[in-house]
Every structure is written in C-alpha cells, then in structure tokens.
Amino acid sequence: MKPRVWLLGCALLVAGCVLLALGAAIGSTGLDSLTAMRSDPVAWQIVWDIRLPRTAGAWVCGALLGLAGAVAQGLFRNPLADPYLLGSASGASLGTALALLVAGRSASRAMSTDWLVQLGVTGAAFVGAVLAVLLTLMLARGAQHTLRLLLGGVIVGVVLGAAKDLVTLAAPHILEAMQGFTLGSTAFLGWQAVSLMAGLLALCLLVSRLLAPVLDGLALGESTAASLGLALPALRAALVAVLALCTATAVAHAGLIAFVGLAAPHLVRPLVRSTHAALLMLSAGMGGVLLMASDLLARGLFAPQELPVGVLTALIGGGYLLWLMHRRGGRR
Amino acid sequence: MSALACRRLSARLGAAEVLHGIDLVLPAGRWTSIVGPNGAGKSTLLRVLAGLLPCSGGEVELLGRPLAAWAQRERARALAWLGQGEGADGGADDLTAWDVAMLGRLPHRPWLAAPGAADRACVEAALRATHAWDWRDRPLGELSGGERQRVLLARALAVQSEVLLMDEPLANLDPPHQSDWLSTVRRLTGAGTTVVSVLHEIGFALHADHVVVLQSGRVLHAGAPHETSTHEALEAVFDGRIAIRPLDEGWAVVPRG
Predict the structure, then answer these.
(1) Residue numbers of B between 197 and 226 with CB closer than 8 Å to A
(2) How many alpha carbons fall within 13 Å on the CB side of residue A2?
(3) Do A218 and B91 make contact, defined as CB atoms within 8 angstroms?
(4) What ipTM was assigned to the predicted interfaces of this complex?
(5) What sign results for the dihedral spanned by CA atoms B201, B11, B158, A279?
(6) Domain boundaries, chain A
(7) pLDDT in tens, A288-298
(8) Cβ–Cβ < 8 Å for B252, B207
(9) How far is the first Cα of chain B from the last one, in angstroms, to the nearest whole number?
(10) pTM to 2 decimal places
C-alpha cells in the first residue's frame, strides 16, 4: 500500500484522538468538570456519561456516514451520490414520526430521558430506514440496474416524505422533536448506543473491505467488471446491504446529519489517489473526524447554547468542498 | 480448432432483434477483425461472444465448451474484454494507471490476496507493451484520451487470456500507437492468443488474419483480407463509398463520392 495512505490514516487517527480529548473538555460547564472529575461525582458523570459517549458517538456516526457515502459513490459511479439516496432518510423520518406519535405527548425527543421511549424511537427509525431501502429494491426489482435503483430511491423518498408530513400535520405536538431529528444531533448518545454502533461499524468496514475490488472493477463499467469474473448481481446486493445498514444505524441514532456522507470521500480523494480498499477506510475516518469536529463546534461556539450539528457539518463540509472546487478550477 | 464459435446466434437489444442467426467460427491463435457499417451489430456480436449479453437464440462455444458451462472466474481467465470508453464516465479517474492495469489480474488472484510478484511482473510487462509504464503512478483522470486507451489496453493484456476481445481498440490512439497496437496484436497471435477486434479503421482491419463483414445483423462475408471477394464485400457493405487499393504490403482505403 502507498505511504500516503498510511500517512493520511495516521493523521486521521491522531486527529480523532485529539478531538476526543477536546470533547471531554468542552461543554456547558466548561473545563471545570474535567479538573473536578476526580473528586466530584457530578463532574465525573458529566465527563464520563455525557461528554465522552457523545463525542465518541459522533466519531462512529460520522464514520458510518463516510463509509456509506464512499460505498454509494462507488456503487452508483456518481460523485454526487450520498448515503440517503435509497430512501433511507425519509424511511427513518417516517419511522421516528410514527414512534413519537405512538409514544404520545410525553415522548418529545428533546426532553425525554425515558430510555424505553428513546430505544423505541431509535428502533423505529432504524426499521423505517431498512424498510425504505427494501421498498426501493422492490420497486427497482433488485439491485441489478443502478438507474432503476436511483429512481426507486427518489420515488420512495418523496412518498415516505409526504407520509411523514401527513403524520406531523395530524400531530403537531411532535413537530419540535421531528425538527430535532431532521437537523441531526449527537446529544443523546450513551455508551450503549455507541458500542452498538461501533460493532455495526466494524462489521460494515469488514464487509466493505471484502467488496472493495468490486467497486474498483465497477469503476471501469459494468461490462468490464463482469468480464473480470465478478458475480455482479450478488455482490451489488451485498454493497446495497452495507449501504443500508450503515445509513440506518447512523440515522437512527443521530438523525439526518447532512453532508458528511457526501463530503467525506471528496475530502479524501485529493489527498490520496487510491483504490477503494483504502478509500473506504479513509472515508470512514474522515467522516468520523468531520462529524466529531462539527459536534465540538456545535457545543462550544455558543456555549451553553447548542447548535444543531447537522447545520455545522453542512457549513464545514460544504465550505471546504467549495474551496476545493475553487482551487481546482483556478488551476485548470 | 476454434477459439470461439457460434451457431444460429441471435440477440436482442431491448425489443429489437439486432443479430439474426449468425454462424461463425473464429480460428484459434489468429486475429479476426469484425467490420461493418454503424448499426450492423458488431459490438453486440462481440458482447454476446464475450458472454456479457445473453443471446436470445443459438449458442456460443468458447474453446470447445458452451459459454454457459464456464464458471465465471474461470471464463474471466480464458477470455479478456476491452470495451468502448471504459471508465469514460469518470468513475475510474482516481485510480492510477497501475491500479487499473492491476484490475486485469483480478481473475487470477485469490479474493483479497495482495498482488504477488507474478502479478506485478505481468502488469509491468503489459504497461511497458503499451508504453504506459512511465506514468503508471498518474491517475486516469489526468491522462489524455489516447493515454487512457493505452492503460485500458494494458489492463486487458494483463489478464493474459487465451482469447482477447476488443471493441474499437484504436479509439483515440495516434498513428504511432496504432502501429504499436498492431505489433502487440501480432506478438499475441504469434504466442497463440486469439484476438477478435471490432474496427472502424478498414485499413487496419485488413491487416488481420481473418475478416468478418457484418451487415444488418447478418454475416455478409468471412474470409482472408487479401481475397478479392472480401474487398468486394467491404465495398458493397459501405454502399460503394470506399475503394480498396493495394499499397506496399497492405491495403489503402480510399473514400469515394
């Protein structure tokens, strides 16, 4: 493997560790909690049960989205592809809306500390995202035709989005919670959620690493990939499964975080030109660092007030991409 | 013995039947050129022969065995394919020339195994053969059309298959590299490889050992390039708009009216 791949990998790892340390220090109570955590159980709880899991969770979530983005862009051979392409975002929204509706007034996501309700909402979002992707696959009659898949994803997205709007119109009391979900937030991540997501991330990284040569072959076109002996229908279905699992896991836990999945692979590419084996791993690392940094800024910029992290990911990722395009455009 | 053969082969693109009952025997260790006007079904025929497009009737035999009886990876080792405009949608722009050529070794490598010394030697030989070795570390997106084509040719060569099918392999190549392509093909057939190409450059096609002239999804003529009947078939299939004249050791194709 090329030295630049290792270099970037190490840089992303170091950045992740530094940001994690920063994450323990930043919050509405400031550094005091960190210095007092040995003696003060409340400070300990703030750092260990709130700050650290949400910071680590932001990394895992970002990594899931970055990986999903790289898989989507390779699978659809389209640099504008993003993880929400197959309808998972609107599926998760609808699932969340329905769960909030069932849970009733008390379950406003922003206030609820009832873990059962929280679990129910997360589970519903996950199931919604997975069902939406399955619906897209049904509409596209399998994963063989990428264009049909894209169209199916758009249709499912629009229809489920409309259904979600109907639900929220009928039950205005869930509006605020829904908005929190739509903007994305890492504020509710606990260690349990983080370890679950980390396990799924490890699984997805492993499977996508196995499938990386398929994406390389597909880059030369379907015919050429098939001529290289790749069993495309089955392999493509496996890639869709990875994409769906990554996205559903991230969305269920942190809401619709914008732009990380789209931007992460684009941030890696100018730094390292490589095959998908490295691109997938580095995109995951980049997505993690991107979301973690955004989360820190969201907490720190106007502390003790907190910004929705999705707004910041769009600003940071979008701003950097814009600068990159500008720089490249200037060179040509 | 025939490398590729088909009997009563027909194929569809969507609802339209593009090939109607084609019988062909492509001799092993020789270079066969498929020529014909636009829409004659040349590329479709090549894709069906490569097993990339299902046929709607008839059958294809690769090295004496029905195409369907081959396992996918085994077939990928026996038959290599160079398509038209591979990676033209920009999907492969971030892969280096080396990475692309290494994809040709995919059918030979166990899944996930890192490329071995033999793979690397083979890729180097392929890149050197197409004069692409010097910029092996450059990404495909930064190469010109002709340079890309040479990398893609190297990718197909790296498969080291017994049969090599190429659809318009001369696209974007300048005259010196077209000549290089010709000598590469000669070297391959000299070593026993079967080469089948679809070419629009009739002058080049006539350097082949065997010429197949297609018209409207049927074989109009199959024969040696120096036969008068082959020339007549070519002139007829292009509505008499070209004339074929002897020139040095080859043939010149002259446009007419």
Answers:
(1) none
(2) 18
(3) yes
(4) 0.90
(5) positive
(6) 2-207+239-331
(7) 999 999 988 88
(8) no
(9) 42
(10) 0.89
